[in-house]
Known about the structure:
Layout: E1 4-7, H1 27-41, E2 51-53, E3 63-70, H2 71-76, E4 79-82, E5 85-87, E6 92-93, E7 99-106, H3 111-114, E8 131-134, E9 149-150, E10 157-161, E11 173-178, E12 184-187, E13 191-193, E14 199-203
Parallel strand pairs: 1-11
Antiparallel strand pairs: 2-3, 3-7, 4-5, 5-10, 6-9, 7-8, 10-14, 11-12, 13-14
Pfam family, one: DUF1191
Signal peptide: 1-24
Protein name: BURP domain-containing protein
Amino acid sequence: MASMLLFFPIFSLSLFLSLPFNNATSSKDLDTLLQDCTFKALSNPKIGIPYDAKVPNNLTGVKVSAMTLSRSTLTTRGFQNYNEFQIPIGVIEKSYVKRLVLVYPNLGNFSEKFYPLPNGFSYLTPVLGLLSYSGVNLSETELLPNLDIRASEDKPISIRFSDVKSVPYGSIPMCVSFDLNGSMHFDIVFHDWDENGEAEEDEDE
């Protein structure tokens, strides 16, 4: 019996290649593209306000936004409703930069292209992500490494998915995540359903 993936809660992409937009063919290329797009969208940004970024025409369907937060605000206040993400109080960033850029990608119909699944599995939601970079210099043209943000076990980052396909009869919903090296990790699904029938998942960062 084939297992169906209910969602892909968090993904992190490694930053190694710098290729033109039209040549984004892997998750590594995509990470380079997302960073470039989002930093261009942050022209004199207001703290705590998400800004949508424009992606190339050949990636129509991919949605990307970026938001700046101070490290102290992230830890002491968190941030509610950053698209599907609920960031609780207590999230820490281990590099101790003063300002962060939080990048939200929704890969839409490109989820399978950049993160193909093994035979017998398919996505029931688009791939979502929450990436963090240093926001000290928003005019930076060099590639920046991902920052390491962590939530506590008792207050994890929550994700409310609004675009969930029905689970086929007889299939088992699972979740999957990828680490910085692209390794795939499967886990069981914990969810609550709200009054609108939307799934709300908890995932430790």
